[in-house]
Amino acid sequence: MKLLVICVGHRMPDWVDAGVQEFVRRMPRDAATQIIEVKAEPRTQGKPVEVLMEAERVRIEAAIPPRARIVALDERGDDLTTVALAGRLRRWRADGDDVVLLIGGPDGLSPALKSRAHELIRLSSLTLPHALARLLLVEALYRAVSLEANHPYHRE
């Protein structure tokens, strides 16, 4: 299984890039993780939010490989514990498809993209900056993979 994190936006602060790359580097081969950045649509005066999200949807969909399980991050998604995320990883691995996790732009993901997703999850009830959401997601994936491998990374 391969994990692809498709994020809207680029040019993250150095501390975000360093943290994300550290957790990506630590991931085991059977859960190799790749970050794919897609360009955010410029937020110019007068452009409706729907138009912005649609442009980003097209870019995101172009980056999704065929036959991948799509998991969208959304504030209304399932609220998972680390143990529950580890269980999802186990199920995704058993299904055999690559898993794509989507992080939207400033306005979130388009409704069409969310409806295409196999599942919706959320990282927090708090509003998170996109840079922090990216780092938090890869850390959570690493923690869940470590738990599945019986590494003493997680404490209940």
UniProtKB/TrEMBL annotation:
Keywords: Cytoplasm, Methyltransferase, rRNA processing, S-adenosyl-L-methionine, Transferase. SUPFAM superfamilies: alpha/beta knot. It comes from the Bacteria. It is found in: Cytoplasm. GO terms for cellular component: cytoplasm. Its EC number is 2.1.1.177. Pfam families: SPOUT_MTase. S-adenosyl-L-methionine binds at L73, G104, L123, S124, S125, L126, T127, L128. It catalyses: pseudouridine(1915) in 23S rRNA + S-adenosyl-L-methionine = N(3)-methylpseudouridine(1915) in 23S rRNA + S-adenosyl-L-homocysteine + H(+). The keyword Heme does not apply. Gene3D superfamilies: 3.40.1280.10. PANTHER family: METHYLTRANSFERASE (PTHR33603), RIBOSOMAL RNA LARGE SUBUNIT METHYLTRANSFERASE H (PTHR33603:SF1). Specifically methylates the pseudouridine at position 1915 (m3Psi1915) in 23S rRNA. Belongs to the RNA methyltransferase RlmH family. Homodimer. This is Ribosomal RNA large subunit methyltransferase H. The gene is rlmH.
